[in-house]
Amino acid sequence: MTDLEQLDSKTLAEMTELADRYPQARSALLPMLHLVQSAQGQITQAGIQACADALELTEAEVSAVATFYTMYKRRPMGKHHVGVCTNTLCAVMGGDEIFDRLCAHLDVGNDETSEDGQITLEKVECNAACDFAPVMMVNWEFFDNQTPESAIEVVDDLRADKPVQSTRGATITSWREAERVIGGFEDGLVDEGPAANGASLAGLEIAAEKGWAAPAMDAAAKKAKPAGGTDD
Amino acid sequence: MTDTLTPVLSANWGDERAWTLAAYTERGGYQGLTKALAMEPDAIINEVKESGLRGRGGAGFPTGMKWGFIPQDNPNPKYLVVNADESEPGTCKDIPLMMANPHVLVEGVIIASRAIRANYAFIYVRGEVLHVIRRLRAAVREAYEAGHLGKDIHGSGYDLDLVIHAGAGAYICGEETALLDSLEGRRGQPRLRPPFPAVAGLYASPTVVNNVESVASVPGIILGGADWFGSMGTEKSRGHGIFSLSGHVAKPGQYEAPFGITLRELLDLGGGMRPGSELKFWTPGGSSTPILTAEHLDVPLDFEAVGAAGSMLGTRALQIFDQTTSVVRAVLRWTEFYKHESCGKCTPCREGTWWLAQTLRRMDQGKGQPGDIELLLDLCDNILGRAFCALGDGATSPITSAIEYFREEFEASMTTPSWELFPPSASTLFAKEGV
After folding, report:
1. Does the distance separating the beta carbons of A214 and B3 come in below 8 Å?
2. In chain A, which residue's Cα lies nearest the Cα of B334?
3. What architecture does CATH give domain B327-424?
4. In chain B, which residues fall in CATH 1.20.1440.230?
5. What is the interface pTM, i.e. ipTM, of the complex?
6. Which of A72, A202, A232 sits opposite B253 (nearest CB)?
7. Which parts of A89-188 are beta strand (E)?
8. Predicted confidence (pLDDT) per residue in B222-256, tens digit
9. pLDDT digits (tens, 9 = 90+) for A97-123
């Protein structure tokens, strides 16, 4: 249990670095809490204390924030976070069935961690990928157009520490490493995965096929001068 | 007559490494910035006003007018905050945009910030999209390295810093004042308005909060001109917009088209509904916009026409459900979402969404009680217009509209569970045809 373990000096220095990015330091609180999770695997009391010290807040003020947002976890997490969207559209498209099958397969309920400590399973709300429904997230990377079978394969590979890549993103690292990027530090994986694929390109492909495009910019400019009084 | 589809923001999504500065510049990126740096800030605002660009985050407020509200005589710093907290159920346009084309947003941020005379800007992106956050951070780093951000941008004397700020999982932070509280390091709870953010926003200073797609549309408006932008769309809803098709359709995905396209046209492009499917109900712009039915297939998807049809254009999140779907189950799940995401600040929303979910849950189980439909409508009546922010209003939209169009299904819920009337397995993506 890391709850009383102090944060290392590198993490504390990075907290200061985050605070320096903002005109007012308190704005760095959400990123700092992500960093605490990355360093300690959950929101710890020591982490809350460190944020409070860095920002001259009370522990109560920091706790009030940490308890408001669902991404902050106050229990030890598995190595990987697996989120299944069960908001209406994904649920209807199969998210409910995927979630139920994963619960049975991992022998866990919502917000619980598998016995081997590898997977924490959670129902998540709409993750803005409805055109790829049903959607599963692993450490907040997209796994699009899932079936119960494909979802089970992904978690089995994760449990076996086999390489797994997001359908539209990078190779899966771990929840803690993901939290570090979310908190504010790059990890060098930006160039993995496509710009877009599948449903994201649906309209673009049809437009290309039909020869459709937005009006040419020069044509509109010739037709009438911009009315805004530009003087470039 | 413009083409049926008009890719602008999505035009480069199929390009190799489209997210890099090199690929974006190769396509003519940052030319809008060059032009804008030679313009007076007020001329930029005028151009955007003239273009007719309206907020792409759902509300449709004129973007140029919003910029014009910033009191330039206020001695405090001015701020631009991009709302990239895309979380409205069904809405999935900004995430693929930022994943594939982050530089068009960064370019828009620089132009918009210069227009309102901000030297600090933020992109508040929801935390649950790791790869999008990577792409944004890299784009900002590259823009600094190229001199598009930082001190004295390209010798113009204009300074701008841009921070990518990730949230931590809270739908309410898409509400602009809750977003500002969250960006200040607090619980994301909406603020009483007035004062509006234009007067007292971030750090109690004049602030513009704009949606991703609004800001990303700005470079094109500056480069092509207001008339170019206005040559697309309808009279009062001008320009291009990303329409997101999801659900029981043959070809779900992103379709960038002029405002005013209809759902029928969009469906026809992609081969209609999935095989064996009939359209039952749909949302025009996310779960907070009242549902519509097959009778609305020819409603032009612009702010005015969708409003006249009794709904709202919202975020053009077209969630399509077929005859296999239980309306009661769908509405219950949305209601549970609003209950979960209610921030708890005001009583009508905090308590009301709880009661709505409780009532709908027993109806979903076929244990509805006489008077439950009236109870739902009464609860909605007590939330709509009485909640502190639009979350409460949004929670009532699916319920009142579903009862209007499908009252008989709510009546059936007095005796029969939704899963008996509409077996869920038939609705799934992996359902065998004809199940």
Report:
1. yes
2. A88
3. Up-down Bundle (1.20)
4. 327-424
5. 0.96
6. A202
7. 112-113, 119-124, 136-138, 141-143
8. 999 999 999 999 999 999 999 999 999 999 999 99
9. 999 999 999 999 999 999 999 999 999
